[in-house]
Amino acid sequence: MTHLSVNINKIATLRNARGGNVPNLLKVAADIERFGAEGITIHPRPDERHIRYQDARDLTKVVTTEYNIEGNPNPKFIDLVLETKPTQVTLVPDAIDAITSNAGWDTIAHKDFLKDVIKTFKENGIRTSIFVDANTKMVEGASEIGTDRIELYTESYAKAFDENKKEEGISPFIRAAIVANSLGLGINAGHDLSLDNIKYFKDSIPHLLEVSIGHALICESLYFGLDNVINMYLNKLK
Ligand SMILES: CC(=O)[C@@H](O)[C@H](O)COP(=O)(O)O
Ligand SMILES: NCC(=O)COP(=O)(O)O
Q1: Is the separation of the CB atoms in 16 and 49 below 8 Å?
Q2: Considering its fold, how many domains does the chain have in total?
Q3: CATH number of the structural domain spanning residue 231
Q4: Which residues neighbour 194 within 8 Å (Cβ) at sequence distance 6 or greater?
Q5: Is 4 a pocket residue for ligand 2 (Cβ < 6 Å)?
Q6: pLDDT tens across 24-75, in order?
Q7: Is pTM beyond 0.95 here?
Q8: Residue 206 structural domain
Q9: 151 C-alpha vs ligand 1 centroid, how far in Å?
Q10: Where is the active site (predicted)?
Q11: Which of 4, 7, 140, 216 is least buried, going by the fewest C-beta atoms within 10 A?
Q12: Among residues 3, 33, 43, 220, which one is catalytic?
């Protein structure tokens, strides 16, 4: 079974647009869990353009399913994660000015740094995941770092799917997943997954533990409603 973790960055984007507390991020997170999602993901960025660091703290009192915090492990992020102790931390190599995440880690070039950070989080009882491209060398590098899981960066798959090249798009992900499974790494995936492309991805990738989905899920909810959309994903992930 593949768990659905809903990324609520876009709820915070909407709230911040007016400077007040509508929509109420904490209530939406609780409702998303009530509708059946198995996790909540946030990705606070240094400029706090959507999720604020205080949101990450407040959510610890609300989230009862899996709590996943994603981000670039700069000192402020590391302190936040150690303070909030989520179920899982996902390390993402975000450039400071990137509009969204646009690459996985080079797990060979950054091996020593990532090893230290992963060790710190694991010593504090936090499950770790490293965001990587569907590249078997990067998966092997992640294994050497000692992470519990990897998160496969799925933008290239989503793009290929849109261009009617789904078989071509999925192949590197199948290869990466086979290597990850053989090395005992848990497999998560995310970025640009949607109601259209999720089923083929889930059916193709062996032992997919979790997907985190935000942008498309919130857009789809404008038409179908959050409750319906979450249940549509849950059906496709069975
Ligand atoms: C790690 C990842 O794949 C991102 O999709 C991310 O969590 C979304 O971040 P933004 O909402 O800031 O685009
Ligand atoms: N880790 C990916 C994530 O949380 C959501 O990505 P997206 O669905 O907003 O592209």
Answers
A1: yes
A2: 1
A3: 3.20.20.70
A4: 158, 213, 216, 217, 220
A5: no
A6: 999 999 999 999 999 999 999 999 999 999 999 999 999 999 999 999 999 9
A7: yes
A8: 3-236
A9: 12
A10: 43 (proton acceptor), 70 (proton acceptor), 191 (proton donor)
A11: 140
A12: 43
